[in-house]
């Protein structure tokens, strides 16, 4: 025992949690794998759904990777980084969220095995990067072009996106509507999805879904004495309350005699009347208000034969502005005739169980609404999500101009190419590239597992088909046999695959490079950067 015991030096606050080295790495990898594990059973046409119940008892039933992860409220920092890639995938291409997460999880699982063989994480990370670059290159060489003219291919893309989702039973019908929708809003070769509103209707069968030229709002007019139909509508969009109450300021008034009260009420009534007069003189006969409308104001508006709806969602206000050419005004005092938009017809109609407002024959004919119907709220919501995925795929395919075939075909082909590429490398990088190739096979393997097939059997068959130059050999999840995924119409936009690979590799690399996790407990004053911080807004 030596006398000069070293005083420990504390450089971090007392309640800081810190893990380092292999432990930190294992911990992060385990968390990332857990995220992938959570969604992998939902992958593909035979994937299962999940039911997520939140703290207030609201239930979501879904097959959609990103929805599951968002609802799960994941907290582990490394796990959050993986959830981020699903969100990026959702925002940029609208589909392939499960794929991206499953690949990221598998990359890390394979990495773990190599780390145990004492391959340094940075060598691994470099190998993964090389593999990813080569994979992107291979993807480009096998992808085939697509344009808006290729209606049948577009239909197949939409159907592939909806396969195995709530929309499955009506995917043909819905795919037709979606292709018409994107064709309708096409502008200089681009599809702006802001022009396609998806509104769900509860209480009818999905096959009755329809495409409306114009905008449909899940709203009714505020007062039954208002006209239920207006032709040549001059539309005002107000982001201001047609009310007196100012809830932000708590005012007290002291009234000492009854005449003061009358005067006060008269004053209120006068202001409300003034609002309506202002609207009337602007020439508007339809008002969409983002906030509330006072009962008395409703009455005055009805008297002037003005149709009004209140508490219209902000996103809908923006769509209405785009469709009718109206300007959203934030104070009623500023409203003038030049701010108004136009719609050939605005009418209220009962759809399913609800009254809805139809705004049709708008200035901008590019605005369309897909009325998605479903028997119950949960069904309609899940169909809406599947439709959103399909729309994302269509817009992406048209924008990017390339398609590949799914059902595991594209992943198997890239894996084959990567194995060849690996042979040109030496030593440890070769191992990393091989691991990357094996990782890609997680997609067909999971498709097979989820379909109750023997994954080893399926992968063996697929490998041999690809070795015989059958580029689009994929798995028929119904028979377990190899099929030509291209001729079977299992098509997906190239971009969905390239983005999934890119973000999965990036996140795996980032997690591999972390060997120190410092979590600053309650120290709010100087927040320590969480390992997830670098990915925020990726
Ligand atoms: P993601 O969130 O990644 O889009 P999905 O549950 O939508 O996950 O599943 C997508 C996978 O299912 C893709 O790999 C796709 O190729 C595959 N797939 C879709 N339709 C079929 C089909 N008819 N046969 C086999 N695989 C299919
Ligand atoms: Mg999908």
Could you list some keywords that capture this structure?
538 residues, alpha+beta, GROEL, domain 1, GROEL, domain 2, GroEL, 3 domains, 9-stranded mixed β-sheet, 3-stranded antiparallel β-sheet, 20 strands, 18% strand, disordered C terminus, binds adenosine-5'-diphosphate, binds magnesium ion
Structure description:
The protein is an alpha+beta fold. The protein has three domains: about 15-145 and about 405-520, GROEL, domain 1 (Orthogonal Bundle), CATH 1.10.560; about 145-215 and about 370-400, GROEL, domain 2, CATH 3.30.260; about 215-245 and about 255-365, GroEL (3-Layer(bba) Sandwich). It contains 16 helices and 20 strands. Strands 7, 8, 9, 10, 11, 12, 13, 14 and 15 form a nine-stranded mixed beta sheet that branches. A hairpin with a 2-residue loop joins strand 5 (about 185) and strand 6 (about 190). Helix 2 runs antiparallel to helix 3 and helix 12 packs antiparallel against helix 13 (about 425-440). The protein starts with 15 loop residues before the first strand and ends in an 18-residue tail after the last strand. About 45% of the residues are buried. The structure holds adenosine-5'-diphosphate and magnesium ion (MG). Adenosine-5'-diphosphate (ADP) binds near residues 45, 164 and 475. Magnesium ion binds near residues 161 and 389.
- Overall geometry comes to globular
Radius of gyration: 29 Å
Name given to the CATH architecture of the largest domain: Orthogonal Bundle
User: Which CATH first-tier class of the largest domain would you pick?
Assistant: Mainly Alpha
Could you tell me the number of beta strands? 20
What portion of the residues fall into strands of 2 or more residues?
Answer: 15-25%
Helix/strand/pairing class, anyone? alpha+beta
Main beta-sheet strand count, sense and barrel state = 9 strands, mixed
């Amino acid at each position: 025992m030596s006398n000069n015991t070293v005083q420990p030096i504390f450089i971090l606050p007392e309640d800081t949690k810190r893990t380092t080295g292999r432990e930190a790495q294992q911990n992060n990898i385990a968390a990332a794998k857990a995220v992938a594990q959570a969604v992998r059973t939902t992958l593909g046409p035979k994937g299962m759904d999940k039911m997520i119940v939140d703290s207030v008892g609201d239930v979501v039933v879904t097959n959609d990777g990103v929805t599951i992860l968002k609802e799960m409220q994941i907290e582990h920092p490394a796990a959050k980084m993986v959830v981020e890639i699903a969100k990026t995938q959702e925002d940029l291409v609208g589909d392939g969220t499960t794929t991206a997460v499953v690949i990221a999880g598998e990359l890390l699982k394979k990495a773990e095995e190599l780390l145990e063989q004492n391959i340094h994480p940075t060598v691994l990370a470099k190998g993964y990067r090389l593999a990813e670059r080569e994979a992107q290159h291979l993807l480009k060489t096998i992808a085939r072009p697509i344009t808006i003219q290729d209606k049948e291919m577009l239909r197949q893309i939409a159907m592939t996106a909806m396969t195995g989702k709530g929309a499955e039973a009506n995917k043909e019908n819905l795919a037709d509507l979606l292709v018409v929708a994107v064709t309708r809003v096409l502008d200089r070769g681009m599809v702006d999805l802001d022009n396609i509103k998806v509104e769900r209707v509860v209480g009818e069968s999905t096959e009755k879904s329809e495409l409306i030229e114009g905008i449909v709002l899940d709203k009714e007019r505020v007062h039954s004495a208002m006209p239920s139909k207006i032709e040549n509508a001059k539309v005002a969009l107000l982001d201001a309350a047609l009310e007196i109450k100012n809830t932000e300021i708590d005012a007290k008034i002291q009234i000492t005699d009854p005449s003061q009260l009358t005067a006060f009420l008269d004053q209120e009534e006068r202001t409300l009347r003034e609002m309506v007069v202002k609207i009337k003189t602007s020439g508007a006969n339809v008002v969409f208000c983002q906030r509330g409308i006072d009962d008395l104001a409703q009455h005055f508006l009805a008297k002037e034969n003005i149709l009004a709806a209140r508490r219209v969602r902000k996103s809908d206000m923006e769509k209405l502005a785009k469709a009718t050419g109206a300007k959203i005004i934030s104070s009623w005092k500023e409203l003038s005739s030049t701010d108004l938009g136009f719609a050939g017809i605005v009418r209220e109609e009962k759809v399913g169980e609800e009254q809805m407002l139809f705004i049709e024959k708008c200035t901008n004919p590019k605005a369309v609404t897909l009325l998605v119907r479903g028997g119950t709220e949960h069904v309609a919501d899940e169909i809406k999500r599947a439709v959103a995925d399909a729309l994302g795929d269509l817009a992406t395919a048209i924008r990017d101009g390339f398609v590949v075939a799914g059902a595991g075909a594209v992943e198997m082909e890239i894996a084959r190419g990567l194995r060849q590429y690996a042979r040109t490398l030496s030593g440890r990088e070769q191992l990393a590239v091989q691991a990357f190739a094996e990782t890609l096979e997680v997609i067909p393997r999971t498709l097979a597992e989820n379909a109750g097939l023997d994954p080893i059997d399926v992968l063996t068959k697929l490998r041999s088909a690809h070795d015989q130059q059958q580029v689009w050999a994929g798995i028929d999840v119904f028979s377990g046999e190899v099929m030509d995924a291209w001729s079977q119409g299992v098509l997906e936009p190239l971009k969905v695959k390239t983005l999934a690979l890119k973000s999965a590799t990036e996140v795996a690399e980032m997690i591999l490079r972390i060997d120190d996790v410092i979590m600053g407990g309650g120290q709010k004053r100087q927040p320590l950067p969480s390992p997830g911080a670098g990915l925020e807004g990726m």
